[in-house]
Amino acid sequence: MGLNNLEKVLSKTLKELKEEGRLKGKESIITKVKRSEREKGPRYFLKGKGEQEFIRMNSNSYLGMSLREEIIQEEERVTKKYGVGPGAVRFISGTFQSHRELEKKLAKFHQRDDAMLFSSAYSTVVGILTPLITSDTLVISDELNHNCIINALRLSRPKDKKIYKHLDMNELEDRIKESIGQAKRLIIVTDGIFSMRGDYAPLNIISNLSKKYDQEFPENILLVVDDSHGIGAYGKTGRGTEEYTHAKGVDVLVGTLGKAFGVNGGYVTSNQTIITYLRETAPMYIYSNPISPAEASAALKSLEILDSEKGKDILEHLHQMTKKFEKGLLDLRYEIIESDHPIVPLMVRDTKKTSELVSYLVDKGILATGLNYPVVPKGDEEIRFQINADHTPYDIDYVLTVLKDYKQKN
Questions:
Q1: Is 324 exposed, middle or buried (0-12, 13-18, 19+ CB in 10 A)?
Q2: How many CB atoms neighbour CB 112 within 10 A?
Q3: Of 119, 141, 195, 302, which one is the catalytic site residue?
């Protein structure tokens, strides 16, 4: 069967994306990594770029765990013990000891009853919202929530969905009031850290609103938070936005092992009844293989490091490098969104200029992410820099020097 007609339609779409400056294009391929040496952090090499070295300013590995020798050794040790993959889904024969050890440790870390692992944080959000949302459930969502939440709501088809303006707590309360008497269950869902901007949800206020109106709904108000960018990189001890805002009352907390913990996979943690229910009903958990036993053990080692004095030192260095970079950008009169989170958005507010700056940075050996519409709203185009704990003062100074030169030339 020919695909000529379909190919014409798809090609037209690709052409439109390119003309609008929204085509992502070919992916850069990392061919090797040079570890930190002297004053320099890790350097990366890309296919087609020869021996040019790159500073990676667009990595989610906020704590630099992915290159720590003890993490690598732990994954190698468990791979030799169990093999490279789980070989089955969890309920058949795919649950290994390291999976349960990690789940119990994550639950304890977040002061909850239990946790369960998924193959990614994206699949975690989609996997848990689907069984938690019924035909008599209303959902209220921040307008800048991550794509995984947006798609989870589309798949779940709640009775109704309401959106509130980004971080507008007055509008959130209005949406709650409007929902009274309209459904048995109300779910409020939000990111902890918003990945495009590095700002955070005031979970203390949101949880207080949940408590205030909880009795108005026969099946309660459930507060669900995806804090994938927050956990491990935010808060005094790396416990994320919940810790940073001193929130009490987050019912279902989603995190990832693929960012600050430097490994792979996602997880949810909550009370025992909810976790047991999700083990029986979450499709992404039931019908997908888990992360490998070795990945689980490597993530457990990362968690142990974070939850120690060494972890506090890593977090402090990460904070210092973030503030050094922010101050440098402000001194150069760049517009940024300031926060304590290692995501540092440089606001360009123009699609073409964003693409030009990304290309300039690449030419100078710096990898950073340009975010254009529709990933961000029109007028909010930006370069998203992400500081990691294995960045050094030398690295930050080099990037700032390149940005200074760019500004002088433009």
A1: middle
A2: 20
A3: 195
Eight-state DSSP code of residue 111: T
Q: For position 148, which CATH number holds?
A: 3.40.640.10
**Considering 99, 162, 229, 319, which one is annotated as catalytic?**
229
pTM for the complete prediction?
0.95
- Same domain for 202 and 241, yes or no, is yes
Range of the domain at 152: 69-306
pLDDT band for position 1 (50/70/90)?
Answer: low
SS3 267: strand
Per-residue model confidence as pLDDT tens digits over 162-192: 999 999 999 999 999 999 999 999 999 999 9
The answer to whether residue 259 is catalytic is yes
Report the Cα 272 to chain-centroid distance in Å. 25
Asked whether residue 334 falls in the same domain as residue 272, the answer is: no
In CATH, what number is assigned to the domain containing residue 378?
3.90.1150.10
Structural domain contains residue 119: yes
Query: What tens digit of pLDDT does each residue of 71-81 get?
Result: 999 999 999 99
